[in-house]
């Protein structure tokens, strides 16, 4: 799993951790171990400082302003768009649309592309491991249009059953909307194959990139996906901001999402004409400060290098997986061959929430529950899992602390 061990030598974990003020605190009298990164990552100082600076120095509404502050704010806002463009190798900046996050991006596509292109008799394919935000918008669309939602099966190891995908793929399919990397299991899905096969029958593909953008190299051009959505807060940026990438011809054809300022070319009671992309989809005053601060998160990742980040996280995942496997009474949920740094598990006889509370008493932050993937939990016949998810600032020592805590709980349970 370790992809480039040499890069690790340039990777100074202390320097990285020093950039995250929040990590340096005690919780319940213990050093905080933050393993809830799949829910949201912590923010480096430069992101927090950029947000402060925006409000202290630059705050103004963007676009069309004649004054210096408006000009500065607009330029910084558009810098972020340019950085995202480069970050995911979009062919152009105007194919990047700012959203509130992944959920907002999926809803945008459902309400625009979906309403315009999907009708009764058509179908949409998702998978059994989707986050609720990649299920419910499609259910709502199907209810409104009479289209059918079809679901790719998931295997016991937590991988997509590609035979099931092949069986579902027929001429009725207009869209395949699939998670790039699963938040509940960590599975990295074979999206290249999915995209290629979907395109063969003329269907479009949306990738839910909430868990892939921070962990994997993402090249939307090479992948040839039609849409890619993601949230800044999963990649060291602020909450309330994300982006949608779309192919130019699709974005240009799609009707607008919300009506209001910024998305228009001209408004007249006789009829309104719409702005060009990306502004056609950006009605109203956006989350300017957070978009500007998001740029710092992207630069943070760029400066470390995705290869180095992936190498470190893969090493943490391999170490934690091996450790967990050696603890009697622990069951791993999600054992795919290719995973991002997400480790879901159960301790025999213990409710995940109780495990989470007891780990919290040791200063360890993990997430417990269904992780917004209730159909997946039902498939595994469980209520939920305990999920430890690792980011660039995590250490093997922290994993040792987790393993020690889990081993004590498992032993305690077995001796009862
Ligand atoms: N999809 C996946 C795979 C996720 O992990 C998440 C966040 N947990 C989402 C979608 C939704 O992201 P957001 O809440 O930032 O819109």
Largest sheet: 7 strands, mixed
CATH class of the largest domain: Alpha Beta
Oligomer: single chain
Question: What is the percent of helical residues?
Answer: 25-40%
CATH architecture of the largest domain: 3-Layer(aba) Sandwich
Short characterization:
By secondary structure, the protein is α/β, with parallel strands linked by helices.
Describe this structure in words.
The protein is an alpha/beta fold. The chain folds into two domains: 13-37 and 305-415, Alpha-Beta Complex (Aspartate Aminotransferase, domain 1); 50-302, Type I PLP-dependent aspartate aminotransferase-like (Major domain) (Aspartate Aminotransferase, domain 2), CATH 3.40.640.10. It is 40% helix and 16% strand. The protein contains 14 helices and 17 strands. It has helices spanning 13-18, 45-58, 68-87, 102-117, 136-145, 162-168, 191-200, 220-223, 248-253, 288-304, 306-325, 352-360, 374-379, 396-415; strands at residues 26-27, 30-31, 33-34, 96-99, 123-127, 148-152, 173-179, 204-208, 227-231, 242-246, 264-266, 273-274, 330-333, 342-347, 364-365, 367-369, 385-389. A seven-stranded mixed β-sheet has the order 4-10-9-8-7-5-6, with helices on both faces. Helix 3 crosses helix 10. 48% of the residues are buried. The model is unreliable at 1-9 (pLDDT under 50). Bound molecules: 4'-deoxy-4'-aminopyridoxal-5'-phosphate (PMP). 4'-deoxy-4'-aminopyridoxal-5'-phosphate binds at residues 101-103, 131, 133-134, 179, 183, 208, 210-211, 231, 372.
